[in-house]
Amino acid sequence: MTTPRPQGVPILRLGDVLVTGLLNELDDKSALLFTDELTERIVSDSARGVLIDISRLEIIDSFVARTLMELTTMSRLLGARVIVAGMRPAVAITLVELGIRLTGVETALNAEQALTALGWQRTLEAPGHDLVG
């Protein structure tokens, strides 16, 4: 039996897709815990997709960029596709100005587009609604 870890960044499950996000306060220790927790959840939940929402990031540095690239590579090795969503224009500009390439990182404009790309669909019918008359 594994001992519970302190909770860091929330990771939600929507079917076979995990949804999470990054905050500005991601330091080295938090990044390592987040990486460990996310990769463990991919395996334990048999996730085939991961959405990482970065819309709350106002700035990005080489450490956060490297963390995203490493998470993407690890997730792919575990059989899950990762999409990073919600990048702000200022963050994209900073990455380009710093010469940082998010090699292997797939992006989407927002979380909804990322979920659609991962094959997750919202059901518009009410539960238990039967179309047979």
Automatic annotation (TrEMBL):
SUPFAM superfamilies: SpoIIaa-like (SSF52091). Residues 7-118 form the STAS domain. InterPro entries: Bact_StressResp_Reg, STAS_dom, STAS_dom_sf. It comes from the Bacteria. It holds the Pfam family STAS. PANTHER family: RSBT ANTAGONIST PROTEIN RSBS, RSBT ANTAGONIST PROTEIN RSBS-RELATED. This is STAS domain-containing protein. It comes from Streptomyces tabacisoli.
